[in-house]
Description:
This protein has helices spanning about 20-30, 50-65, 125, and strands at about 10-15, 75-85, 100-110, 115-120, 145, 150-155, 160-165, 170-180. The protein is an alpha+beta fold. The chain has one domain: Sandwich (Jelly Rolls). A 5-stranded antiparallel sheet has the order 1-6-3-8-2. The chain has a 3-stranded antiparallel sheet with strand order 5-4-7, with no helix packed on it. The model has no long low-confidence stretch (mean pLDDT about 95).
Amino acid sequence: MILNKIFSSFIFTETLNFDNKKINNYCLGHLKKEINQTDLLDLNNENIIDLKNTINNKLNVVKDLIGLKKKLKLEINEAWCNNNSPTVTTVPHNHVSSVLSAVYYSKVENNSSPLEFLNPNSMLDYTFKPEFIEDYNDLTSTRWTINLKENLLVIFPSYLIHYVRAGVDNQRISIAMNSKFCE
Ligand SMILES: [Fe+2]
């Protein structure tokens, strides 16, 4: 018998090498009091333009790897910073106006809560109930967990619902980016 995997999803992860001090200062400077998320950033600001260009290139590599048209070019069209407070679970959400999204972690203090993605097949565990599972894998999992660390880049299809659970973590600063195809 041959296992044919169908209707798959994915995430790409990579550790980057950036001057996070500059990025963190820029992010913290744009946060408003009591709010954990900045407004949209100036994508050409000197503090983040290298990061943006690097991630933009990687989004186009991923675009080709998953089989989207080579002649189409993805362009990051919005970015914002998150400064997560330890005790707040982010609301599960996706970024449907985008094609591929990216999040880069410029500061992750010890014991950070993981980033979790939900399987878009929300019916899965009605059929494969937890008590039936020997070992969870990509065919049986309803959630996928990424342990966060500084300098980690995560790229994902923008339809995937994701969130971070509340935890005992200390400060965690991330920059999220969305992309669209160039006109
Ligand atoms: Fe998000």
